[in-house]
Amino acid sequence: MRNTAKFTTAVLAAGALTLGLTACGSDKDSGSDASAPLKVAATPTPQGEILTYIKDKLAKKAGLDLEVKEFTDYVTPNTAVQQGEVDANYFQHQPYLDDFNKKNGTDIVAVPNATVHLEPLGVYSQGVKKLTDLKKGATVAVPNDTTNEARALKLLEANGVIKLKAGVGYDATPKDIASNPKNLQFKELEAAQLPRSLGDVDAAVINGNYALEADLSPAKDAIAAESPKDNPYGNFLAVKKGNEDDPRVKKLAKLLTSPEVKKFIEDKYDGAVVAAF
């Protein structure tokens, strides 16, 4: 996930109008035709690549006509599902989806038993090789969407450079930092911009998919990275509530958690993406 969009108040207003129209019955239920193509929105790396592998290697045998539609932001895949432009999406983790539904009045849900992978969040730097080497007053770029910013701060806390207030959850911001011995300065940027910021900041906390697109590996290049153990940020297949039992969705969920996909993830990403099933 992933994973924030470039959108304005006007776009949000238009989206709200569209959602209202959808709620009034403009949405077409493509799930009524089990033979229709299943349209799935995804961010390009690794989700789009995993779906393309399924489309090319596994879907035909399973009797699934799969269409992959790629987006580079973290909002459009959800609005497209809500509005019925696509049938499902694959790009996000549960804390992000919970926050998105709450803020946008949407009713998108995770498909049962379809959590596919984790992209470990990593800290990258062109100037230091350890977080403890950051100088006082150093600037650290973090994602500016609610859940991934909190996730970034928790990663920094886990590595001992800051301490958050007790009980802070998935909506932590720099205002929730209780201790900051190095007086780190935080630069909040859209997740997609973080790799490009590395030359302008002392370190950046980058989502796994955007790191991969920038040829950065959490396993090899990060100076600190999340542990996959008990991690709540696994990416899953999601649909508009009520479409969980669409037979096409069930077919894709089974393929996404198949041994073939697990091997594809292990072989292609070498630890930068970790299977979560």
TrEMBL record:
Membrane disposition: Lipid-anchor
Stored Pfam families: Lipoprotein_9
UniProt keyword Signal, yes or no: yes
Keyword Lipoprotein applies: yes
UniProt-annotated location(s): Membrane
InterPro entries cross-referenced by the UniProt entry: Lipoprotein_NlpA (IPR004872)
Positions of S-diacylglycerol cysteine lipidation: 24
Highest taxon in the source lineage: Bacteria
GO cellular component, one term: membrane
Keywords carried by this UniProt record: Lipoprotein, Membrane, Palmitate, Signal
Main subcellular location of this protein, as a coarse class: membrane
UniProt signal peptide: 1-23
Protein family (similarity comment): Belongs to the nlpA lipoprotein family.
Name of protein: Lipoprotein
Taxonomic source organism: Streptomyces caeruleatus
